[in-house]
Design goal:
By secondary structure, the protein is α/β, with parallel strands linked by helices. It has helices at 2-6, 12-33, 35-39, 71-80, 99-111, 134-137, 143-162, 182-200, 214-224, 237-240, 246-253, 287-296, 311-333; strands spanning 61-65, 85-89, 115-120, 167-170, 204-208, 229-234, 257-262, 264-265, 277-278, 303-305. Helix 9 (214-224) runs parallel beside helix 11 (246-253).
Length: 340
């Protein structure tokens, strides 16, 4: 795949410099577009220069939200949970990402004194989250939905720029293990095109872990050969899909991690269904070891809780998970010393 990786890609050093310059321009534009951040004396960091975003504390705990289901309540809930940041799942806004909507969401971020750390979409459908139909319906691998999803990601990148968000994330799908598989080369080309679009907006493009092994993801990153391509580490997905232990996965893809979804789960025991997502602290993820490895690698970005329950139970779960993670992160950030 070396040939595919080098086609229409400029030199890595030149690409990095060009991306950094674009990112600096977006940072200036973002500061003007986000008076709520400027008012708090925050910095808009260029992607790839630091994982720390907009003056957040290193590894600050946040929450993934779907504002299309009720934006006012969603942002207020994050603030009431005592968090400073949120990760935006924006599928509900596809086809509606107008400047007016961006102004509305910016206003809610300002009102609740929150930082939006990343934006994600995975649609349009069909999407089947299992081992039977997942390979043919998830991400940028399936030919039938690839063009529409690339368009959705570009739309999201443009919208995220209006919100001052410098990371766009998605599931790229069941990327083939065999680099000689035609679908592998097609997926690499699709990822490269979306990453280049995000680079034009001063953003990182992040591949969320799950359907592919860490080795395959690492190979794809190398073959795409775009300096703004990184990893969104979902700690549970690696287990739910039976692909890897997240502690070991960090040894392979850790240097590329630019966002974290903190989630827990168990291995799949039914060969047709994913493993079970469970309350953080009751599954198989060793969060202290994962965070310790990432901290050593210099990761300072947000730690976003994702709990796949709903309603009052979800809020209760998130409160409990936040306390659990805070205790671990305090220990990790103190350099491993026991915390009284």
């Amino acid at each position: 795949m070396a040939g595919a990786a080098s086609t229409t890609v400029i030199g890595a050093a030149d690409a990095m410099e060009g991306f950094a310059e674009t990112a600096r321009g977006v940072a200036r534009a973002g500061a003007a577009a986000e008076p709520h951040k400027a008012a708090r004396g925050e910095q808009t960091a260029a992607p790839n220069s630091s994982d720390n975003q907009h003056g957040l504390q290193p590894m600050a705990i946040g929450l993934i939200i779907q504002p299309a289901n009720g934006a006012e309540d969603a942002f207020r809930r994050v603030r009431e949970l005592g968090m400073t940041n949120c990760f935006l799942s924006l599928d509900g806004y596809l086809g509606k990402m107008t400047p007016a909507l961006a102004d509305e969401l910016n206003g809610l971020l300002e009102k609740n004194e929150l930082v939006a750390t990343a934006a994600e979409v995975v649609r349009p459908e069909p999407l089947v989250w299992d081992f039977e139909r997942g390979p043919s319906t998830i991400g940028l691998v399936p030919r039938a939905t690839r063009a529409a999803r690339m368009d959705a990601l570009k739309q999201t990148s443009d919208f995220a720029k209006r919100l001052g968000i410098d990371r766009v994330q998605t599931h790229c799908g069941f990327i083939p293990e065999d680099p000689a598989d035609p679908l592998y080369e097609e997926a690499v080309a699709a990822i490269r095109e979306v990453a280049q679009h995000c680079a034009g907006n001063g953003q990182m493009f992040l591949m969320e872990t799950g359907q592919e092994t860490p080795t395959t993801m690492s190979r794809a990153i190398k073959d795409v050969n775009q300096p703004n391509l990184g990893v969104g580490l979902d700690t549970a997905n690696l287990i739910l899909y039976g692909k890897a232990n997240p502690v070991d996965a960090v040894d392979i893809i850790g240097p590329h991690v630019r966002s974290i979804h903190a989630k827990d789960g168990k291995w799949p025991t039914d060969p047709m269904k994913l493993g079970e997502e469970v309350l953080i602290g009751t599954g198989l993820v060793d969060f202290e070891k994962v965070f310790r490895k990432l901290h050593r690698l210099g990761y300072t970005g947000a730690v976003t809780i994702e709990r796949e329950t709903s309603g009052p139970q979800q809020i209760a779960d998130v409160r409990q998970e936040k306390v659990y993670l805070e205790r671990i992160l305090e220990k990790v950030m103190a350099g491993g010393r026991e915390v009284a």
